[in-house]
Amino acid sequence: MPTTTLAGRTIELDADGHLANLADWNEEIARELAKEAGIEELTEDHWKVIRFMRRVYEEEGDAPSIRRLTKESGVDTKTLYKLFPKGPAKKAAKIAGLPKPKGCI
Amino acid sequence: MRKLVILGGGTAGTMMANKLAGALDLDEWRITIVDSSETHYYQPGFLFIPFGIYTLRDVRKPRRDFFPPGVEVVSSQIDHIEPDKNRVILAGNAVLPYDYLIIATGCKIRPDEVEGLVDEEWGKSKFEFYTPQGAETLRRFFKSWEGGRLVLHIAEMPIKCPVAPLEFLFLADSYFTEIGIRDKVDLHLVTPLPGAFTRPRAAAILGDFLEKKNIHLTTEFGIQRVDSEKKALVSWEEDEVPYDVLVSIPTNMGDECIKRSGMGNELNFVPTDKETLLSRDFDNIFVIGDATNLPSSKAGSVAHFQSDILLENFLDHTDGRPMRAKFDGHANCFIESGFGRGMLIDFNYDVEPLPGKFPFPGVGPFSLLEETKMNHYGKILFRWMYWHVLLKGAELPLEPQMSMAGKRP
Ligand SMILES: Cc1cc2nc3c(=O)[nH]c(=O)nc-3n(C[C@H](O)[C@H](O)[C@H](O)COP(=O)(O)OP(=O)(O)OC[C@H]3O[C@@H](n4cnc5c(N)ncnc54)[C@H](O)[C@@H]3O)c2cc1C
Question: Which of A49, B253, B280, B313 could, after both became Cys, cross-link B271 (CB 3.0–4.6 A)?
Answer without folding.
Answer: B280
